[in-house]
User: Fold this.
Amino acid sequence: MHAVVSIKQVPDTSEVRIDPRTNTMIRSGVPSIVNPEDVHAVEEAVRLKERFGGKVTVVTMGPTQAINALREAVSLGADVAILCADRGFAGADTLATSYVIWKAIQRVDREDPVDIMLCGRQALDGDTGQVPPGVATRLGWPQLTSVLKIDEIDFEERFVRVHRLVEGGREIVRSTLPAVITCTRELNAPRYATFPNMVRAARFQPQIWDKAALGIADDDPNIGLRGSPTIVSKVWAPAPRQRSGTTNIDGSDPDRAAAELAEVLSGLGLTRSTHVSPVTAVPASAAGGEL
Amino acid sequence: MTAPEMAPETVVDFSDHRGIWVYVQHRGGEAAPVAWQLLGIGREMAQQIGVPVAGVVLGHQVRHLCDQAISYGADTVYYIDDPVLERYRTQPYAHGMASLIRKHKPEVVLYGSTIHGRDVAGAVATLVRTGLAADATQLSIEEAGHLLHASRPDFGGKLMSTILCKRNRPQMATCRPGVFSVPEADSSRTGKVIKEKLGLKEGDVLTQVVEFIPESHHVDLSNAEIIVSGGRGLGGPKAFDMLFDLADAVGGVVGASRAAVMAGWIPYQHQVGQTGQTVRPRIYIACGISGAIQHLVGMQDSDVIIAINSDADAPILKTADYAIVGDMFEIVPALVRKLREMRLEGVVSPTVDDGMSADEEEQASA
Assistant:
């Protein structure tokens, strides 16, 4: 069994602060972490390896610091780690990123055929969830997004059955292998790294693949800024809308406040039967919501 | 299966791309409300730049969705009816969308940023090689060049960014459900339905949907008329009980702030805000929510906001139409009692005079 996991190093958004003067993000001192859902993808791949034997390859695209993310995956049980790094990749949006990851998976697959690819559902910083569908589409492999559970997997018969989160419930889907699976937090509980794995990870030197290693020509229009159809034209901190004419209700006497509120609510047209019995019969004093 | 053929990279002249499309997401012939919400904003933008707006319906025997799309504002509906499209699956749906886009060349395509919408849009963007903005909460279009501005929360809702797609067409975006209003349906509107073929056989599809299991406690915040929401001020999971009581008394559903969800007091599907769901109910009652920006941006378009907070300086009080500074642990139960009394007296549901409860009456008249 050969599982490939693509991961992303992201800033820990809970630590990100906005400079109120300039409306820009204060990045300094913000720790980088492995995107949380990607950790679940690594965990699931390692569990498959433990069950079926084989190996786990982890891939990322990014600057040299992203080696730390790969090392963390190694500490959790990944065997091979590949960093796609090249100045030409800079400024990539999701389409250009999926092109590079696709090239990497193609090479990995040529050298040792891949049975399954796992990724996090979406990244903490951008929340787009677009790279896995991009890679799956380019590979021509089925994509199974928002997976809650791998129900059944058979590398001999080459199929997988998963539970996917969908609107209003869950869906059980059967797919051929290889397939691309995007993982939710519900899929598993990631382990802690063992001490020997941490030692191994600390010394681990990932392979670094540049354009040439990936078979990407210098003038390939699909990478970096040139291969990115989207641009960010403006960034700002959202401001709440304040309402004029707020009515203050005195809350010092709870019963009185509750009575006033109840009147406001009935004036607004309340209860489950609102659309059956309109508010026409509500006392006129309350109908406008004025107090 | 070999990788599908992709469109060539260089497109410069966009004059052959025209019109705004909305992907009509549905399951089993029942449309997701976001489809009609997007037809509303899609039509507004289309009128502004003088182009048609179209719905795209893929499925099997779902012709009624074409008529509904027209009644919600579509001038044209592109319709692929095929048994392979009986249930949503990425591969045949993305294939169908991509072939329609290649043939009819829209300049904008909008999808709901639901699990389904994101799933299909990510694949389509790769097939037709174009830009896709994710989870837009604001949309506008420039008259010159018809450039779509899709703005979205970034970095966990702390920032907004505007995404442009200048060099490729169509410009695509997935858009947050519940942000744009559903336009008034007009069944007298007429429009053209253009039928196309899928060009894919069941044998070409690599996945099968085995079963759909509905979630019994599905919380539908984005379509709720009344939301009773709780935050950090509740102090623990137990206090949510009184919010469920209040929600029951007003016929609403329970929402929560990110803080309450992160604390594990209530599941994620209740979360309102930039990183949860955007809501715009008729009435939003915020209890013990201070009003962090992520929360306010996700609920500030509610028709009427009522906030109860013990802290007179809580930012939410400035966003509210009715602000109550006081102890919600006293006020909320008192309010529940009062509302129940009023219902018994018939003040709230005055037409109920035959002893039927509000629920029964609703059923009886349906």
Observations:
- The longest helix of chain B spans residues 328-345.
- Confidence is low (pLDDT under 50) at residues 350-366 of chain B.
- Residues 57 and 83 of chain B are 14 Å apart (CA to CA).
- Chain B has two domains: 20-204, 226-365.
